[in-house]
Write a structure and sequence with these properties.
seven-stranded mixed beta sheet; 21% strand; binds nicotinamide-adenine-dinucleotide; single chain; alpha/beta; 22 strands; 38% helix; six-stranded mixed beta sheet
């Protein structure tokens, strides 16, 4: 398959190149070798994309919602039919194992396209009677939406932002992460092939500066970012200058609370899924695992046994279930946190090292005896590092779980149904799990509270963030005035 794309950008229905832009090298995290070379968007490319989006949006918004929805559903079918190739590409882009990408990336993108394709025609206003007079509301698109992506789920993020935006009648200019620029180009190609008018969904490449130049451009009406909190602060502040609508999907340091009465195998599965899937590079990961004292030893023993089942290697091999980190830089950052964990006195239960093989690998790492004030307990690590804490009571667990600046997700494992719901109600987090972890079906709202973000993706809730309401007042009789 071809890894080097036809050109760096996809604008107005076709591939476009401008070699004057800064070089972006795409590195396969398993070999460390450059597999494609792209160029960041120059101001001319940014302008071309925004002009195309602005023009196309007017045409697209004029289509019936049923017609728009049909395009999205057709795109979902194409994505599913090409799942294998798209998954191979996603694995080259990110280093995530094919075993994951073949079930979690293009498939999740297709779900979003299908869901919002189905929902498009139901996006309507309401009728508000006022005696003989009345008001009706129109739910209208915002205009041109900018999407800016992180590197951990490039296909999914391109679709999670694009599908609701397009369903509401907006156009999109999407800038993928410079670390994983390949997959979003395929999303743009497929939408075009499915019948989206040229210019409705554009992809331009670039580092942070290209993202920053998009946010303050007067042609832009909305910005949706998936990224870290420091970037979120900058993007939110820049968007505020033009009072632009925003969606912020940011970082987390989510708690996972396991009570003595929990089913041990399920709880260990939840902790593994919530810490080591995608080599720990998942925003909603439950990286602070609070284990009640009665079950702690059994939990750590079973966890260590099950981690022996990790199979590292070439992520394109379907038997491999644990891939390298996305980049050398990210591995260095995570190694720095591991060193801090050891230095600050946490007990290294397993992992902590680079295995003896090619690629930016780090072993799945578990720390026990972690205290709440250690660096590994407070900062987002974004790698395969789990911290285990012990606790005695439910009240204590909830208070410590919520003692964080983040509020993306939280989970609880318990056999006590009422306690599960009590914990979910008490968690200060946007997405909560009872006896499961890290599910993200398109039907349910996804997003964070506190520093983890603003707005929601997926579900009917996303429509609120990609449309605006207009009220139309209608008087049926004569209108009087005092003079
Ligand atoms: P990042 O913040 O470094 O970069 C995100 C994107 O923002 C990139 O495309 C980058 O080029 C761009 N960017 C950087 N500076 C910018 C600026 N000043 N203006 C505009 N754009 C700018 O994040 P990352 O390292 O790519 O991804 C990891 C982070 O993303 C983690 O914190 C993770 O928790 C978070 N994340 C959140 C979610 C979620 O849904 N909440 C999902 C995935 C990842």
């Amino acid at each position: 398959m071809q890894i080097q794309p036809t050109a760096s950008h996809f604008i107005d229905g076709k591939y476009v190149e401008d070699t004057a832009g800064e070089v972006i090298e795409v590195i396969y995290p398993y070999t460390g070798k450059v597999i494609a070379t792209l160029h960041a968007a120059t101001p001319a490319i940014v302008g071309q994309a925004l002009d195309a989006a602005r023009r196309a949006q007017k045409e697209w918004a004029g289509w019936s919602a049923t017609e728009r929805g049909r395009v999205l559903r057709r795109a979902a079918d194409i994505m599913r039919a090409r799942n294998h190739d798209l998954s191979v590409l996603e694995t080259y882009d990110t280093g995530k194992p094919y075993q994951e990408t073949s079930v979690a990336d293009a498939t999740s993108g297709a779900d979003a396209l299908e869901y919002f394709g189905g929902l498009a025609a139901s996006i309507t206003g309401e009728y508000i009677p006022l005696g003989d007079d009345f008001v009706y509301t129109r739910r209208e698109p915002l205009g041109v939406c900018v999407g800016i992506g992180a590197w951990n789920y490039p296909t999914q993020i391109a679709c999670w932002k694009g599908a609701p935006a397009l369903a509401c009648g907006n156009a999109m200019v999407f800038k993928p992460s410079e670390t994983t620029p390949l997959s979003a180009l395929k999303v743009a190609e497929i939408l075009c092939e499915a019948g989206a008018p040229a210019g409705v969904y554009n992809v331009i490449q670039g580092y942070g500066a290209v993202g920053a130049s998009l946010i303050t451009d007067p042609r832009v009406d909305k910005v949706s970012l998936t990224g870290s909190v420091p970037t979120g602060r900058k993007v939110y502040a820049a968007a505020a200058e033009g009072i632009r609508n925003v969606t912020m999907e940011l970082g987390g340091k989510s708690p996972l609370v396991i009570f003595d009465d929990a089913d041990l195998e399920s709880a260990v599965s939840g902790a593994i899924l919530g810490n080591f899937y995608s080599s720990g590079q998942v925003c909603s990961n439950g990286t602070r695992v609070f284990v009640q004292n009665g079950i702690k030893d059994a939990f750590l023993k079973r966890l260590t046994e099950r981690l022996a089942g990790v199979k590292m290697g070439d992520p394109q091999d379907p038997d491999v279930n644990f891939g390298p980190m996305v980049s050398e830089k990210q591995r260095d950052i995570v190694e720095g946190f591991i060193a801090k964990g050891i230095a600050e006195g946490a007990t290294l239960v397993c992992g902590g090292k680079r295995p003896d093989m090619p690629g930016f690998f780090l072993e799945p790492t578990v720390f026990a005896d972690v205290s709440d004030d250690m660096t590994i307990a407070r900062d987002e690590i974004f790698g395969p590092v789990m911290s285990v804490f012990d606790f005695d009571t439910e009240e204590e667990a909830l208070m410590r779980a919520n003692d964080t600046i983040y509020g993306l997700a939280a989970g609880v494992f318990t056999a006590d149904l009422t306690r599960g719901h009590r914990m979910a109600a008490g968690f200060a987090a946007g997405t909560c799990y009872i006896n499961t972890y890290n599910d993200a079906p398109v039907e349910a709202p996804f997003g964070g509270s506190k520093l983890s973000g603003v707005g929601r993706e997926n579900s009917k809730a996303a429509i609120e963030y990609y449309s605006q309401i207009k009220s139309v007042y209608v008087r049926m009789g004569d209108l009087e005035a005092p003079f």
